[in-house]
Automatic annotation (TrEMBL):
SMART domains: HTH_XRE. It comes from the Bacteria. Pfam families: DUF5753 (PF19054), HTH_31 (PF13560). InterPro entries: Cro/C1-type_HTH (IPR001387), DUF5753 (IPR043917), Lambda_DNA-bd_dom_sf (IPR010982). PROSITE patterns: HTH_CROC1. Residues 16-70 form the HTH cro/C1-type domain. This is Helix-turn-helix transcriptional regulator. CDD domains: HTH_XRE.
Length: 286
């Protein structure tokens, strides 16, 4: 179990080593072409040290990598793994903790996200009113300006659903999420309506686990699985706790959580049935 930047630094190193091998170069030959010490190539490939995006560009040039999407992703990966640079969330670094910035960074790079939620609506699907109520409840006593900034962060994250290409987002929600009256009746009515709208986007899939399912594999452990384009074995599972997040990247962990997610989908209502159920719950809000 590792923290986000360490996971991505290791993954970046593994991919750069794979590309070097594919180019037919030894680490010594690559170092000579770049004017580096061989030990630097080794440290980068083992994830022992970060690497700047411009150095990743130089490595990819030496390895004759022409895939523009792969090049762009590896350069972004270098920035988020501690190799310099930043995304839009860097402007909020004094407000949001490092583990949240790590999470947003992963989210911004991912091609697909699969998530199980048992307590709250996923951040990418929240309305402003719901996000405000959740944040206020989670961080009691937060100054009003900080609260609004955190809501702004939550809403800005949702740009990934409107990007080109957009993030493919699949969520399984425990029915309890929809009955928990976060923010009051009107906030929940608006939130439920928003769910029925956004779930109709072609790249968003929403399934509901009804109470009738009873206990299920994810009952006490919500999780998120990030998957990335082009890079093999780059998926990461994130488990959120009250004061920290854990990042799992071992193959057996990824297989276990992917299998659990498929099981949850199999037990959940279909997307169409889920929309009908959400609409019915919304009609029952008084």
């Amino acid at each position: 179990m590792l923290h986000g930047p360490v996971v991505r630094r290791r993954k970046l190193g593994e991919e750069l080593r794979r590309l070097r091998h594919a180019s037919g170069l030894t680490s010594r030959e690559a170092a000579l072409l770049l004017g580096w010490h061989q030990s630097k190539v080794s440290r980068v490939e083992t994830g022992a040290s970060g690497v700047r995006p411009d150095d990743v560009t130089r490595l990819l040039d030496v390895y004759a990598v022409r895939d523009t999407q792969l090049r762009a992703l590896l350069e972004v990966l270098a920035r988020s793994a501690g190799g310099g640079g930043s995304g839009w969330w860097h402007a909020y670094r004094g407000l949001i903790p490092p583990q949240y910035r790590d999470f947003i960074s992963l989210e911004s790079q991912a091609a697909t996200v699969r998530t199980l939620e048992t307590s709250v609506v996923p951040g990418l699907l929240q309305t402003a009113g719901y996000a405000r109520a959740v944040t206020r409840a989670s961080l009691d006593g937060l100054p009003a300006d900080h609260l609004e900034s955190l809501v702004e962060v939550r809403l800005t994250r949702q740009r990934v659903l409107r990007a080109k290409p957009p993030l493919r987002f699949t969520a399984v929600l425990d029915e309890a999420v929809l009955h928990r009256e976060v923010g009051g009746t009107e906030v929940m009515r608006d939130q439920l309506h928003h769910l029925t709208q956004v779930a109709q986007l072609p790249h968003v899939e929403l399934q509901l686990l009804p109470f009738s399912v009873g206990g299920h594999v994810g009952l006490t452990c919500p999780f998120v699985i990030f998957s990335f384009p082009n890079i093999s074995d780059l998926d990461v599972v994130v488990l959120d706790h009250l004061t920290s997040s854990l990042y799992l990247e071992r193959k057996e962990d990824l297989e276990a959580y992917s299998s659990a997610f498929r099981t949850l989908q199999a037990h959940a209502l279909t997307p169409d049935q889920s929309l009908e159920h959400i609409a019915a719950i919304r009609r029952g809000c008084r």
